[in-house]
Amino acid sequence: MSDVSKRFEQLVKSTYKKFLDHGTILPVKTDKGILVGDVLIESDGPLKNIYKKDKLIYSDISLNAVAIKIANLLAWNSHKQECEKLYNLDTVYSKHFNDSKFHIAGYHKATANKDDLRADVLWTRYQFAKEKAILAREEAEELASFE
Q1: How many domains does the chain have?
Q2: Residue 30 belongs to what domain range?
Q3: 8 A C-beta contact, residue 26 and residue 16
Q4: The three-state (H, E, C) secondary structure of the chain, written as one string
Q5: For the whole model, what pTM was predicted?
Q6: Which of 7, 38, 58, 103 is most buried, by CB atoms within 10 Å?
Q7: Rounded to an integer, what is the distance from CA 84 to the centroid of its chain?
């Protein structure tokens, strides 16, 4: 093994140890999904499901950062309340995101049908839902950060 390979291996091990010392387990890609300790994050289209010991713990998570943070917390068997708060924030984000998609589709349909009043109402609802989704996402991602 060359000096560069040895140094690289030492760097990887020390970085991994630093993450563990700070309470972060690095995710590992497997055939089934992403493994964080003994917790599996499985993709279901754009959504993620979290399993621990083959038992579904959380389903339909939209935000990757939330899924990784919840998986880390579950792998360490800690902070159940933080997991619930993250999951609830992700659910709020998903609701507002889906509402915004529904309203923008309705807006385009109303515009095509030249229904200006309906288009204005749907545009306003779209803007409101979009802003709520952005705020929920920011709050969830801030809570999910590893800093």
Answers
A1: 1
A2: 3-144
A3: yes
A4: CCHHHHHHHHHHHHHHHHHHHCCCCCCEECCCCEEECCEEEEEECCEEEEEECCEEEEEEECCHHHHHHHHHHHHCCCCHHHHHHHHHHHHHHHHHHHHHHHHHHHHHHHHHCCCHHHHHHHHHHHHHHHHHHHHHHHHHHHHHCCC
A5: 0.78
A6: 58
A7: 13
